[in-house]
Amino acid sequence: MATTLSAPTVADSKEKISDPMDTVIPSKEYKWWLNNIDHLITPQRRKVFENYSNIPPEDVRQHIYDIKAWAIRQYPCTGLGRFLNNLFAQSPAYNDIVVRLKNGDSFIDIGCFLGQDLRQLVWDLDGAPTTNLHGTDIVNHWDLGYELFKDKDRFKVDYFEDDMMQPGEKLMALQGTMDVILINQIFHQWGIENQIEGATQLVKLSRDRPGSLILGYQCGVPEQREVVGPKGSKYRPLLHSRKLGRNCGMELGKEQERNGRRNQSCLLGSNSDMIPRKRYGWEESLDGIIISPKIPSFDSSNQKLGQQNRTAF
């Protein structure tokens, strides 16, 4: 039976939990902590640290292991080395986004973490102005990003700490101005009420014009279910199935219409693909999937990697 999403009422709405990992007890006993992530330090990733960050080849591995993001939040993307995967650059929309940004469109990365996706964009913009690029997160990993990539003197993107669910002054000022919104690995942290509220905030942030785009990768499972959060957490996130992912995309579309907006594209859940998480370093969770946005109107020859004709960051 298909799940119908509905906006919460005041009576049944739970307290907003924008940052469900803030009370998790630090530990390396969680199954999403891997002591060894050597398999993710691929030749392509090595080139980034050797050629972009100017780290001697013999020091690359230890440099990656020394980054202290786990002490800030015990995110799976940290413990599993997911920040070494470049899923955004593999989106079928990626090449088109680069062209749009070169032509002056605005872009924001919600939950930008270490800033790895923004660095990929700056690399591919190849000298084009970056004044329209923004990154925000509810907790600051930005300084660690400078430490990881050793580029504080040359990586210039507007970053600010903010909460998309309860936006502060900076996010409020950007409402209605974003042409492209990237939100990776965020929605699967929340229950359904907060997922709907998050979708509402994205609509407010996006520009009301044809071509406005919201996209992102979210984790899920073959059959939707709530899961118990890690010890010390205060949430029961709803993990998406392909069907529920599409329903979420439809719900966001309805939210756009409720706000009088009919010209935006949402690739959060509609037209989703399933990508085995094992392919991206989630070996301990064989049934896990990533809900991956795909765009049928794009040339199918570019849909696998979205990066055939460019140099990888």
General description of the model:
α5 (116-125) links the parallel β1 and β2 (133-137). The longest helix is centred in the C-terminal third of the chain and has 17 residues, at 242-258. The protein has a domain at 84-302: Rossmann fold. The model is unreliable at 1-16 and 263-311 (pLDDT under 50). The relative contact order is 0.16. With 313 residues, it is α/β, with parallel strands linked by helices. The strands form three sheets. A six-stranded parallel β-sheet has the order 3-2-1-4-5-9, covered by helices on one side. Strands 6-11-10 form a three-stranded antiparallel β-sheet, with helices on one face. It has a two-stranded antiparallel sheet with strand order 7-8. Helices cover 27% and strands 13% of the residues. It is built from nine helices and eleven strands.
